[in-house]
Every structure is written in structure tokens, then in C-alpha cells.
């Protein structure tokens, strides 16, 4: 069997042989994209019985082959192999790790007497250690949220690489010039990750550490590097933002790599989301093409939580926590007004994770609207009709809407930001206006208050759980680079820390699966019906 495409493996799903674009189990399908970590899927919509099933590339896996499962597992192993320096430099020399927690004296002193090491210390990860990607064994493809490979939902093992320090390293610390860069929008925890990368590099013995200012733009000629050390970063995590600054857009990959080579950078730590990681992978490939022994390691930063395969990305927990303040204010405003309606818009360009989790956490949301679940505002099943019911029965209501939801109601401008992301219209303002209009026309106006806390949330410092996540991710990024890996990113998967090849986590944005238990829990909590 040839190599399976990323679209099929790891995520997909259900009876390829029995599913077509128009029906599944007799339920007619309306074709719009849906579902968690699943591309090419069909959403089967039936009031109160919403299902998502896959429209996989049906011909790619031959389930009549008795060997399909082992072939699948082998193929998965290959896809999730993490690129190593030895792949292109078979003669690359390794050294005993300078990272050893039994050393009492700082290892950043000169290495004239050789590298300190302690063979008795069992703190290293073996390169063959693996973490299981999927941990639920579904007994039926109809189980809620089931992610199946074949029609019988057979148990298939999908193993990924465990992160952490290796016994052998592929860089001499005194030869390393490490650079850190933060790209895209702000996200709580950036400073925590920067800080931990610097601290861990110093523990290995690296002395040349710099920050590249304002994202990839900093590789342009006019911006100077920022020297970093433990002293510089010691307290940076006490405030939000990024010590280095962020930006969108910037030079092309070839110019970035030219600049890295001019500066002598041989380790690059890239903090950013999908776009940033696409850039990091392109930089990694370009460096390989040029035969450069450089490690490029990503740390996923996305407040929207839209990176594939990970339990969560840093900053997300903090965002959900901070969103509570906005929701609570909206609730109090709505509750204290005569026929009061609170509307809160939360981040999430293509993924409703923040809105969903914030709704769940607050217990104050009556209607949660996310990009993954289509809705109507008007009509017999529309949001406004339900809102009317809520005002009649409860006297007030609170709506939480993700920024990417309901874009079909807004005029498209085709405007893009410097990174090429579509600039969205403001769905919060639109909903506010439509509610006002609707109730005015009904002859019983509603008192609508709209809150958009986006930039207040993004600028926060990380909370405790994100602080821990950032710390571990930062450490693992450094361990990965020293171990000789490149073109990888770090993450948390089923509570364990892992390394993943970049292309696997950015092939499309991770979204909320409308058939997942979590979305069902959210619906249970809000009590909202389908709005179609
Ligand atoms: N496909 C791509 N290839 C190379 N660089 C990219 C790509 N997409 C975005 N970038 C660059 O990555 C940086 C961050 O991208 P952006 O989409 O703004 O944020 P995020 O990384 O959070 O998705 C920008 O400097 C942008 O120019
Ligand atoms: O106003 P900006 O800086 O362009 O950012 C807006 C975007 O930033 C985000 O918070 C996420 O940005 P990133 O993709 O860079 O992480 C989105 O939710 C939002 O659309
Ligand atoms: Mg992006």
C-alpha cells in the first residue's frame, strides 16, 4: 500500500464504503464542513439528531486486505517520524548531553575539561519512547464522537514521539547561537515560553541567545537582535504580551534563511500558530536544501486552540478564564435590565473552542454560537425566536458568539491582513443590531449590551495551568533542538508531552466537532436548540 494522505489517517472516520454525500443511516445530509480534527466530512443534519461522518478518500484504504491494519500502523509511524539531523547528515557527530540535573555547578562554564555527564542519571528519554495518540476504544462507529478508521471502528494504535532530554546531543553548546521569535497575534504565555527556553539553553551551556524582534519582520535588515539571558528574562512572565514583540507578514523564506545564515543562527525557536508553523517548516526545508546544520523547533501559540492533535495550546486556559469576566459582566447587565440581552464576542476565527469552553465554565450562557455549527438568526428556528422565548420566560439572556461564526450574514470585503488571513466582519455588532431591530419591530424592545473583550484577554499574563504548560513546552523545545531534531513542534497529548512533525499539525485548523461529547455538554448546559 502506498503512503496514505494526512486527510485519511489519524482522524477518519466511519464507514467509507457506506457513506456517500447525500445520506447516512437514512438521514439526509446537508454538505457543509464540520467536525473536530476531521477534514472532508459531511455534516448530517436532522433536528435534535446531528451527526458528523466522514467522507474519506474512500479508495485509499482497502479494508478487504487482511493486512490493512498493520499497514496503516506502519504508515502512521512513518508519517509521525520526526526529522532528525542524521537523516541528511549521516555522519553528524553526537556528544553526551550537557543537560544533567545531578550537576550541582552551572555547566555554562568553559568545557575545556570535557562535558560534564553522569551515566547513572536516568532522566533521559529514549528515542523509541512513544505516546498513544488516541486513547478511546470505540465499540461502535455510532458511539458519540467516534473517530474510526474502518467501518467496524477497529482499534488501531497510533503512536507518536515522546518529548524530553536525550542522552546524546548534536550541538556543542559553545557552538550554538540560538534565536527565539514570536509571530502572529498576542497570546498569554509567550513570555513564559521565551523565559523557559532561555533558562534551559543556559542549563545546556549556551551563551549566545538572542530574540528576533517583531516576528519574521525582525529578519529584515533594520531591526537589531535582542540579547537574552536568564537575567533578562527572569521576571518577564509576570506580564502579558511578548518581550520580543509580534507581527504579521514579513520577509519571504529565502530572505529569512539568508538572514539566519548571516547572523550565524543554528537553533531557531519559533512561537506561533498555523501561519508561523508553515513558515517554520518552510525555513527548515530551505535550510536542509542549503545543507545547513540548523534546528528549527516550533512552540504552538494559538489562543484559538486551533492546532491539530493537541489537548490544548498555551494561552487557551487563560483566555477561557478571562472570558468569564466579560460573560459575568454581560450577565449582570442583562439580568439587571428590563428585557436585557448580553452579547459577548470571543476569539476564534475558524474554531469555537474559546466560546464553547467559556460557555461551559460560566453557566451563564443561554446561546453559544460557533463557526462549526451553522445557525439562522431569523425564521421559526432562528436565534431571535428563541431569544424571544427566553425573554418571555426568564426575563433576560446572554449570548456568546465566536468571531468566525455567522460570517455568511455579513458582507464580504475580501480584505486580508499582512499574513493573508481574511479580515472578518464583526458578528457581535451584527447580532446586537439584529436583536434590537427584531424586538423593536415586535413592539417590545430589548435592552442589548455588547462586549468584545478580545484584546483585554489576549494581553493577559498566563494563569497557573498555562504557566506550567509554557514551562514544559519551552524546556522540551530546547531538548528537541539539542537532540538534533528539526521541523518539529512540541505539544501535550493525552497529558503527555510529545514531538510532532510540523506538517501534521497544520494541515488544516482544528475545529470543534459538533458530534463531540464536549459540544453536546455545552448544549446541555445552555439548553439551546438547533437554530436551523
Ligand atoms: N504559509 C505560510 N508560509 C510562510 N509563512 C507564513 C505562512 N502563513 C503565514 N506566514 C507567516 O507567519 C507569520 C504569522 O502568521 P499569522 O497567520 O499572522 O499568525 P499565526 O501564526 O498565529 O497563524 C506571519 O509573519 C506570516 O507572514
Ligand atoms: O487584530 P489582530 O492582531 O489581527 O488579531 C486578531 C486575531 O487574533 C486572534 O486572536 C488569533 O491570532 P493568531 O492566529 O495570531 O493566534 C484571532 O482570534 C483574531 O482573529
Ligand atoms: Mg493564522
TrEMBL record:
Family: Belongs to the phosphofructokinase type A (PFKA) family. PPi-dependent PFK group II subfamily. Atypical ATP-dependent clade 'X' sub-subfamily.
Gene3D superfamilies: 3.40.50.450
Residue numbers binding ATP: 185, 248-249, 273-276
Stated name of the protein: ATP-dependent 6-phosphofructokinase
Taxon lineage: Eukaryota, Viridiplantae, Streptophyta, Embryophyta, Tracheophyta
Function: Catalyzes the phosphorylation of D-fructose 6-phosphate to fructose 1,6-bisphosphate by ATP, the first committing step of glycolysis.
Protein location: Cytoplasm
One Pfam family it belongs to: PFK
UniProt xrefs under InterPro entries: ATP_PFK, PFKA, Phosphofructokinase_dom, PKF_sf, PyroP-dep_PFK_TP0108
Activity regulation as described: Allosterically activated by AMP.
Keyword Lyase in annotation: no
Organism for this UniProt entry: Centaurea solstitialis (yellow star-thistle)
Pathway per the UniProt entry: Carbohydrate degradation; glycolysis; D-glyceraldehyde 3-phosphate and glycerone phosphate from D-glucose: step 3/4
